[in-house]
Write a structure and sequence with these properties.
Radius of gyration: 18 Å
Shape: globular
Helix content: 55-70%
Number of helices: 13
Distance between the termini: 35 Å
Strand order of the largest sheet: 1-4
């Protein structure tokens, strides 16, 4: 029997449907504003991602079309953010977001177009199985991410480089992944909290390593560990428990999607890895 890692019980309340509709409408309004205010991309992307997480609190398996629409909108917004940031100054980009093609001005390199945002956008493209957007994101130069001015531990750039190398089938994947691993050592950390590194940031690297090593048993062990650590971190205290970031294990889910699509067995059940996102049940329901 597959191990089960349950998320803490969540009471959606009697008016959950109306509340979710209000959240969706508010999120759509922010998306609509991007055509005039691309400088708000960072906040809008965070909003769409949080909306996707909220849907999974109310719909733990992502079984409704509304949940899928929320996840796709988040994926489209994240990819559009980098399309806008990468476009030449004074130009526009056309991006499909929330069932509508939108013309958005080039934002240029902004503080929100950084490596952590890139990882979120890439994981969303993987989960939604949008290979074109995965490729688009993997062609964003590492130096462009550095130019955002955001301060991160050095490992994250090697991690992004490794993922881009994997997807674009460039040489040197093993060496780049090792360099990323080395950068997570507590001895090298400057600003990242040790617990955050051990329970949230490091496990996806280990899980990806197990994926490319093609060892299904060790991969599943690493997946179970990643989900359990995710739960431990986000339920450690009341403040974290109320943070939407803990609703879904984004990176482990995305890497599990890669493994699922490669025909690997996924031997764990958890609301942190919604099954209808994992098994791409909604793929093809509408144009993305």
């Amino acid at each position: 029997m597959a191990p089960k890692i349950s998320r803490p019980e969540y009471d959606p309340g009697e008016d959950s449907a109306e509340w979710l509709q209000e959240i969706d409408e508010d999120t759509l309004e922010e998306i609509d504003d991007l055509s005039d205010s691309p400088d708000m991309f960072g906040l809008t992307f965070s909003k769409t991602l949080n909306t996707a997480f909220v849907h999974c609190l109310h719909d733990p398996t992502a079984n409704t079309i509304e949940s899928w629409e929320a996840w796709v909108a988040a994926m489209q917004t994240g990819s559009a953010l980098f399309a806008s940031a990468s476009a030449p100054e004074g130009t526009t980009v056309e991006c499909m977001i929330a069932h509508k093609v939108r013309t958005i001005p080039a934002s240029g390199t902004r503080h929100f177009a950084h490596a952590a945002t890139w990882l979120e956008a890439f994981w969303l493209a993987v989960i939604c199985r949008d290979q074109a957007r995965m490729t688009q994101l993997c062609n964003v130069p590492i130096e462009q991410l550095r130019a955002s001015g955001a301060q991160f531990e050095e490992y994250i750039y090697h991690w992004v480089d490794a993922l881009q190398t994997y997807w674009l089938e460039r040489p040197g994947l093993g060496e780049k992944l090792v360099t990323a691993f080395d950068g997570t050592s507590p001895d090298t950390l400057r600003s990242v909290d040790r617990e955050l590194m051990l329970k949230i940031l490091y496990p996806p690297l280990n899980l990806f390593h197990r994926f490319i090593s093609q060892d299904p048993e060790k991969f599943n062990d690493a997946l179970v560990e990643a989900i359990q650590l995710h739960k431990e971190y986000w339920t450690a205290d009341e403040e974290r428990s109320e943070d939407l970031s803990g609703a879904v294990a984004l990176a482990p889910l995305a890497i599990a999607c890669l493994a699922y699509d490669a025909g690997r067995p996924i031997d764990v059940e958890s609301e942190y890895v919604p099954e209808n996102l994992l098994d791409r049940s909604w793929l093809g329901e509408f144009e993305i």
